Amino acid sequence: MRKISILGSTGSIGTNTLKVIEANQNEFDVRYLTAGSNAEKLANQAKIYNPDALAIANSDKYLELKRRTKKLNLEIYQGREGILEIASRSNIDLVCNSIVGAAGMEPTYQVLKAGNDLALSNKESLVMGGSVIMELAAENGLDIFPIDSEHNAIWQCLRGEQKQEISRLILTASGGPFRNTPMSELEKVGPREALNHPTWDMGKKITIDSATMMNKGFELIEASWLFDIEPENIDIIVHPQSVIHSMVEFQDGSIKAELGLPDMKLPIQYALFYPEHRPVKWEDTDLAQLSELTFEKPDTEKFRNLKLAQNALEQGGTAPTILNVANDIAVVSFLNKKIGFTEISDVIEKALKEIQVIQDPNIDDIIDCQANTGEYVNKIIKKEEV
Questions:
Q1: What does the pLDDT look like over 261-294, one tens digit per residue?
Q2: Of the CATH numbers 3.40.1190.10, 1.10.1740.10, 3.30.70.1060, 3.10.50.40, which one belongs to the domain with range 316-386?
Q3: Whole-model pTM?
Q4: 251, exposed or middle or buried, with CB in 10 Å at 0-12, 13-18, 19+?
């Protein structure tokens, strides 16, 4: 049995990862689980999978977690340091990082530093620290298996192909809940409307990122690092049905696409068992019932975050870190009704203009930038509330 650690086990990806493990019995031994703040769910998972240790990022939930697991013989850690302690354990065959947001970058670094292969859902790891993360993986001879449906699709399409034959990568986007909403009406939308995604069932933060299309901006940056492709050779196309998860075009004009129903268990299972396509099937894809697949160009004027992400990637250095951290804080502020929907982009744009970018950053530069950006963005949001 392969020993696995799941960082962010109580979220959407973490929960689906455990479903995949359950469907492929006797393949994995779940050694470590971590959560952000859901002590009850983490404790319930511990009772089922009997890991060696748990960690919870929210220290206020530590005593609750201890109480709920007092009959289990477990090590329990708390706070950022607790998550990093679990991430740095080396007695593991594979780590799945499904932590949401910028908080997932440093654990990714620690996983690779400990010499573990990584199944990666936390796109922010490569958005913020792409050069550092990819260099560390290469130095240690480690694999990064992408879980995001788009990158997992490209990964599958590239299997057996030669890099020099690639013309471009094509990332598909659902368009989110506001694809057909006039730009003039976006200022008035609230969290309830923004969380109403038409095709995917995801956590709140990722759902808002989809509504602003920042999710696709992050994926553009992530794809460039994962597949070592120049930004100008990566395109984004809106595909509302979310059936084709992404495509690769080759020099002769031929295009390979990976398609299936919008179910995250499929890319998770491929990442966990690569290079095998396991016979465990989820819901069948009935092509006859799909009826039509449509495509359209993204509106970068309406969805400014796409352009901000493209600019940050081109600028390089810590610009994507600033983009990422500013977005994280702005999204939480929007969900808490402190700023409006279109102000998410305003906050990010201000941060990118005002915060100095460091070229060729190391891990400490990125962590410092993360802290400085957080301090700056919280200040400007507080001013806007007054």
A1: 888 999 999 999 999 998 877 878 888 887 789 9
A2: 1.10.1740.10
A3: 0.92
A4: exposed
